[in-house]
Every structure is written in structure tokens, then in C-alpha cells.
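User: Could you check the structure of this?
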Amino acid sequence: MKPIRIAVCHKDQVYAKALTEALSARWHRASICMTEPDSDDPLSGMDRILCGSAAHVMRYGSRGIHLYDDPEDMESDQLSIHRFQPIERITAQLRNLCDHASGVLPVAEDVSETIFWGFTSGVGGSGTSSLAISTGRILSRLHGMEVLLIGFGRFICNGGDFHSRSDGRSMGQYLYRISGGEGLSASLLQACCRKDAFDLTLLGGPDRENPLCFAEEEDVYQLMRHIARYGGFQRVLLDVPAEISCWKNVMRLCERQIVNFGCQKHRFGPSEIQAEILRERCLDDGADPDVRIYTFHPLEDQDSFLPDQQGSDVDIHGQFGAEVRALVDRMENQ
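Assistant: Sure, the predicted C-alpha cells are below.
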């Protein structure tokens, strides 16, 4: 896939460097560089140029985007992005401008700041679900984030909890309505969610088998779009077993891809193959696998932290929790 080429042209070179690095870390398809604002270079090889002044935007014509400080500085006939807002929102708006010829910015409510993390392993029983649960609890309890955990295994974890809820909805019906293109709301999404004692939100339902395990790829994509738009979550964690047919493309949706090796060395082989497959996919997409893919090698025996039915014995403070906290810090600070 051909990368999108973007130049940052701003008189504040410290800001320009920080913006270039932040955008590069969040949008791996784009090739982003800095340039001097007073240069006479027409930057003919660039698809978009982010400029710090309206005058520079005029120099580059339709390729220029104004990074404005004050709304009063906006020009009605120029593409503009407010630079004093979260980097996730700037990235989303810039993607929209580069991917749509119309150049119309989405309204603020439609710009999702959700980041997807995927967890997988080459062999079952290596503690990947425990890793996903622990990561979610650390992000929600210790980092104060709104986090949703979605499992793609055959059976819904804690599905019995939804039988006691008067407003509980079937995951199968929820997925069916999304795949049919029906207009949905945040309240319907919440009817398929519950929070555990650590404020981690779990997606599930009273279904005996998990419909996501057998869903078509396009239905999964529509579900993820719906969650990103209506969920209001900062992080969505996907627990993706390699047994499902679309595991590679589900993991491909995630900006952070974690391959769990477990602690038993004689079972490392399948996970090594999985990590290599994901790396090849990243390279095909023009992404940096060293930024997107992580491997997890716990020191503790996975049998000591397997969750019970409620998942209450997944400790975020013990040895395993310390290792997961280090993983989370590494991914958040990348």
C-alpha cells in the first residue's frame, strides 16, 4: 500500500518535531516529515502540508491545511485543524482529510478517540484471557480510563451474569441488528455490557455461545465501528484466539497487537509463528511492526493466575500484575 506523504511546516520547530513524532506513532501508513516554513521548496512530492499560517496554506493550494491557534484565525476557504486539542483527534481529522477527496472535516462528536488493543496467542491455555483482563483492569483502575473488553472465544465469559439483568440483550441479536445496518444507540450497547469490581467494562450477553466467534469479518468491522462511535471508550481490548477464522484481520484493526507466549518454553513455537505473521501484515500495510507488535513472556506459571468464573483472582498487584503493568507502560509511552 502506497504511504500518504505529509509535511509539517511550522515556525515553531520544537512543536513541529513533537507533532511529527506523535502523528508518526499513531498513523503508520503516513510518511511524515518536517520542513522549514521559509523554504522555497514547492514540496511537490507531498500529499498534504500542515502549515502554521494562512499565508503558507495559500502557497501550497489545495494540499495545504491550516493548523490554527484561534478560531478567529480560520479562513472559510481553507482546510483547517485546531492544533490545541488531543493528538488522537488531530490524527483522526487529518486521516479524514487525506482519505476523502471532499476534504470535509467530521463534526467533533463523530471523531473517535478509541484505540484498539488486540491480544492473541499461538496456543490455548497460555493465559491470554488473563492477560487481557489484567491489562483492562490496570488501564481502568490505575490509569483512570474507560476500557471495554471483548472476547472472541467460543463461550462468553460470565454470560450467566447477564441472565439476572432485566435490560440484558442477546449478543446474537445485537450483532444481527448491526450487520443489518440498523441505526443503533449508546443505550443498546450498554445493555450488552457490565462492569466488574475494577470498573472494567465487559461486552457479553446471556447467549450460551459467543456469536463473535463465528461472525463474518464485515460484521465484526461494523461492530467495531459502532463501538468506536457510540461507546465513549478510550481503550477497547480484543481477546482474539487463533482458532477463529478471521483472527489475522481482527488483530489488524488494532494499533497495539500483543502476542502472549506464556511461560512454558516448549510451547513458544506457535506464538513465534503468529508474531511473524502479524509482522508481515504490518509491513504489507506500510506500518512499523516494532511500534505496533509486542510480545509478552510472563515469568509466573499461568496456572497461578487463571481466572475463576468471575475473573476475581486475576491479580493486578502481584508478580503477574507487575509484569502486565510494565507492558502497559511500554505501550502507553511508545
